[in-house]
Amino acid sequence: MLVEDIQLHGYWQRYREQAARAQLSACWSEPIFDVSGQVLGTFAIYHRQPCNPGPDEIHLLKHAANLAGIAIQRHRAEESLQLSAMVYQHSSEAMLVSDVENRIIAVNPSFTRITGYAAEEIIGKNPSYLGSG
């Protein structure tokens, strides 16, 4: 959304006074999308004088909104991974993780407590090792 003059634009009717106090005269904004197309927020640039962007500024606005979307999604993914790791580490259930070659690459503390195998003993082995003897 490109608003050349906040004081004249209908969308800003309710906020004109606040914009004037903040000395904001123009607003250029672009939605921030995730990879599925869901809106995450809005990236906006404000100006103290009424103005419209040129093609280069529009390109930069879109690029900045895209980068903001990537950063937001990355942050959310990191938070999700941290939560998953915490659940894995603190679960009362024994858990192991194996790679595509079916070698154990990680075990949680409950696995060690329940099975009696230390992580160093079991890492690199096939899970079928647990059924022997």
Describe this structure in words.
The chain contains four helices and five strands. The strands form two sheets. It has a three-stranded antiparallel sheet with strand order 1-2-3, with helices on one face. The mean pLDDT is 95. The longest helix is centred in the middle third of the chain and has 36 residues, at 55-90. It has 133 residues and is α+β, with helices and mostly antiparallel strands. Helices cover 40% and strands 20% of the residues.
Number of helices: 4
Q: What is the total tally of β strands?
A: 5
Q: H/E series, N to C?
A: EHEEHEEHH
Terminal Cα separation, in Å?
A: 69 Å
Indicate the mean pLDDT.
95
Q: What tags apply to this protein structure?
A:
three-stranded antiparallel β-sheet; 40% helix; two-stranded antiparallel sheet; 133 residues; alpha+beta; 4 helices
What's the topology here?
Blueprint: E1 2-3, H1 16-21, E2 26-33, E3 39-47, H2 55-90, E4 96-98, E5 104-107, H3 109-115, H4 119-122
Antiparallel strand pairs: 1-2, 2-3, 4-5
